[in-house]
Amino acid sequence: MKLIFLTVGLLGIAATAFAEEEVEKVENKDLSETGLAVLEKLRALREEEEHALESIENDQDREIINSILKTEIEADDAEVAEAEDSVRVKRAIRRRGRARRGRGRGRRRAAARRRFYRRLRRNQRRAARKRIAHARRHRQNVRRAANRIRRLQG
After folding, report:
1. Where is this region: Disordered (predicted)?
2. Domain residue spans of the chain
3. 3-class SS at 92?
4. Residue among 87, 90, 93, 89 nearest 127 (CA)
5. Is the CB of residue 113 less than 8 Å from the CB of residue 96?
6. Is 94 in contact with 113 (CB distance < 8 Å)?
7. Which residue in 148, 144, 146, 136 sits closest to 19, CA to CA?
8. pLDDT tens, position by position, for the chain (154 residues)?
């Protein structure tokens, strides 16, 4: 049971370390004070992960945990890349230039096109918010598990 908690905690710490690497890529830009504070906290979590891995005495367990963390991080990266590639418009775009019978149909088409793109933007924003909320909940759960592990070890 302790090994499971330890594994989950290390997974959480690895996830925050991965997030830290993403933040470091953006670090060249000027960060606000809150951004710098978050960056420092993430770096501290990464150091805690390294210390937790060093505290494991059994080399076999350490290697198993490292391999599990690597595969889970790679799976998360693959899911994110797949989600970004799979976003597509599911309806055909209507042709604009030719109004066959006067202006009435052209106006209806233009209104329908505006409704379609408004709905598309709304759905894309909703999907983005859902992805962000899911990632936020995941980070919170991982941190909670890491804190439990630290309490059990300490």
Report:
1. 125-154
2. 2-153
3. coil
4. 87
5. yes
6. yes
7. 136
8. 888 888 888 888 888 877 766 655 555 567 788 888 888 888 888 888 778 878 888 888 888 887 887 788 788 777 777 776 665 655 666 665 555 555 567 889 999 999 999 999 999 999 999 999 999 999 999 999 999 999 999 7
Residue for token digits 């991982």? 142
Residues 43, 18 contacting (CB under 8 angstroms): no
Structure tokens at 84: 């970004």
What is the enclosing helix (H) or strand (E) of 68? helix 59-85
